[in-house]
Amino acid sequence: MTVMAERDGKKIGLRTLVPAIPFLWLGMFFLLPFLIVFKISLSQYATAQPPYEPVWNWSDISGYFSALSFENFKMLVGDSLYIDAFVSSIRIAFISTLLLLLVGFPIANAMARAPKSWRPMLLALIILPFWTSFLIRIYAWIAILKPEGLLNQMLMSIGLISEPLNIMGTEVAVFIGIVYAYLPFMVLPLYATLEKMDESLIEAAQDLGCPPWRAFWTITVPLAKPGIIAGSLLCFIPAVGEFVIPDLLGGSETLMIGKTLWSEFFSNRDWPLASAVAIVLLCFLVIPIVLYQNAETRRAEEGKP
Amino acid sequence: MKRSLGPFNATVLAFGFAFLYLPILLLVVYSFNASRLVTVWGGFSTQWYVALWNNQPLLDAAWITLRLAFTSATLATVLGTLAAIALVRYGRFRGRTIFTGMVYAPMVMPEVITGLSLLLLFVAIDFDRGFWTVMLAHVTLTMCFVTVVVQSRLLTFDRSLEEAAMDLGATPLQTFMKVTLPIIFPAIGAGFLLAFTLSLDDLVIASFTSGPGATTLPMRIYSQVRLGVTPEINAASTILIGIVAIGVISAGLLTKRKIAEEAEAEKKAAQAEAAEIKAAMADNEVPAN
Prior knowledge:
The complex is a heterodimer of chains A (305) and B (289). Chain A is mainly α and 305 residues long. Chain A has helices at 2-7, 9-41, 61-66, 71-78, 80-113, 119-131, 134-145, 150-157, 171-196, 200-207, 212-223, 225-240, 244-250, 257-266, 271-302. Chain A is globular. The two termini of chain A are 17 Å apart. Chain B has one domain (57-259): Orthogonal Bundle (MetI-like fold), CATH 1.10.3720.10. Chain B has helices spanning 7-30, 47-53, 56-89, 96-108, 111-124, 131-155, 159-167, 172-201, 204-209, 217-225, 231-284. Chain B is mainly alpha-helical. The chains are: A mainly alpha (305), B mainly alpha (289). At the A-B interface, helix 2, helix 5, helix 6, helix 7 and helix 12 of A face helix 1, helix 3, helix 4, helix 5 and helix 6 of B.
């Protein structure tokens, strides 16, 4: 790298410019907004336009600090509605991630063990739904899960149940929705690690008399660990803040923090409180996000020849 | 070692793909249903497509969304590619850790947070909300996906080609335009398509950052879907699914043909090489073991 930089003076100009442009963009539109959210979360609700007390008075530093208020955070801690929403979001995201692992692992494993010539097509079939609208894919489940929906009709016509199951508007519907929408995100990282696995290890274990399930636990699962971690984080983090799925499938019963933030913002127009919810949610997610970044950076670097 | 799938794995795949595709398939089938009720089959009809054609607000929203996706994906591709080059080629520049963080975080960040924070930025700098604010927000979200796609291509790329060009006297810019860019171009194209689709699809961030007169298609669909299942939306969804399916399948066929051609060329080269080695071995009378 340095040799190249010395060889050509022009390279030094490019060397600052190429990282600087995307860096400045992300600083302006990703990092700075978070500071503003933090700022506004410390502000007071006001019936004004925009609906919060101005905290941008830079000329008066002492007034600036006295205008800070922790009321919003006190309210979040004091009101069980918010605590319940946080707890239930994390629980729903956690259970969904486990279900995704249960569903995604066999699929990824079967894909990685399929004949080589099939694999590109299987991979394309996993990715294809991801290209069609997320909203539409969730919407499709409404017609299936409704009390008079297709699933209930089918189950009743084959005589498995006598009256319609009430799935729509419950957490079960949310689990189904999350597993359905996030499945490619779980399968792809798992497939990437399982495909690289040396199959002869399993064969060796079986030759030595190891039953298949033990070979699976002691060989396949440990070797797939990087994929399991990446896939789980990739599903867990956005699932915690999910809005569309609990809103459309979960009904009013399901409490999730993404929905709470949305309604504080759009229905109650309490921007400072919505900001405080966002800050708390971010604090919960900082650790998984950093873990995910490390996993991704390592994966990217391992890709180097 | 060539063998087909075992019965267990075949069943797993069959169920997995049924789970993924049946809901979409049902949606498509019921868009041709003459009955307004979702679950009652009233015969084949294209009336919902006609109704869709006369739904001016929905068509307006579709047009805005397409323009939005095109503009934001173009800008995101440029920025994302620059970021990928910076990450792969520029080693440990100052602020690299923050930079890497800012590239990976938007991808997993819950959309409600990103949307809210961008909205508050636009309000703070007093920027009128509308088409352009959604565009800026989408660029910020999608450029990171472009970066990841281009980055993986740059990492597996043979640097000696660039070095050869430089040794032959090409300037860094010439090397980039004539050697690097053509090689990473498929990845840049894939990144653009990904950014385009993500922008087309986004509901949450658009809802936060949009203003009057810039209602996107997902926002329009969402407001109708909340009122219940409507056959018109089934028809709109079917059209969107159809466009995506045609696009993905044709892209797949194109790359498949290219891969087949490359594989053929490689096979021929390998055969020629094998023949050469055989000839050389015969000449030197090396025992072949």
